[in-house]
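Q: I have 276 residues here and want to know how they pack in 3D. Can you give me a structure?
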Amino acid sequence: MSTTAHTEIARCLLEPGYLDRLREERLSEERLTGVIGSGRPPDELDLAKVRLFAGFISKVQHNDLWLDLPYTRALLKLAEIEIGVFAEYRERHLRLLRTGPTRAGRVRSFLDFLDELLATGDLPAASVISTMAAHERALWELRLALTAAPDESNGPGAERCITPRDVFRVAGLAHDPGRIVEAIQGGGAAWAAAPPRPHFVCYWADRSQQRLTTTEVDEVTAAVLREIGAGTTCGALLGRLSASASPAVLGDVLDQALARTMIDHAPHDHDWASWR
């Protein structure tokens, strides 16, 4: 292999976007000449193999993702798309490295990329993998929240607001992540045939107990919990969700959240009792 080929391989592996530009140049040459591989000996530089090698390097560089996303990574491997996914991610990863990212930043960047890739629907078992990625992302974010100092500032007008006492996330999932985990642990290909079961899950980081809990909730409860945050008054909550449920139902959801110590409220803003 020539020195030029070695140089191009190095640039493909280390320079963001170079491999894609080189591939596009090859395709442009072929479209113009109608000859596959024109202008360059076909065995001089196999860009498909270089791309897979770049994907393998990226995969190895992300081995620590097994700690936080074990079943998402397992599904990528079982679906035989792991190298291809990391090859697609290579350019974004190289650009991220130039910013000196934290470990949390690296995990978040990969999950954001995977969400975008899965949303295209082009990957096998995309809905199963997407379910597991959303599930493990919520658990990962809440583990980070348990180790972080609580945010005591709820912004302007906080004394009039319903505010989260702890940190929680709500996810709408297409499958049951527990069933997917069982299928992976059982071996075979049963994971790929996980039956759809659309549902909503609340992930709650209880700081007082230093524990994570997950609870399946109905659609209305999921909508209420998603809306609660700094600046959320009873009136604003009722206005945004009045088309989804009656005031009485919304009040019941808030009562349950208050009883479970998931939320705080200003005493004079506890006016959802009048919604019944």
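Q: Anything worth noting?
A: The longest strand covers residues 199-206. The radius of gyration is 24 Å.
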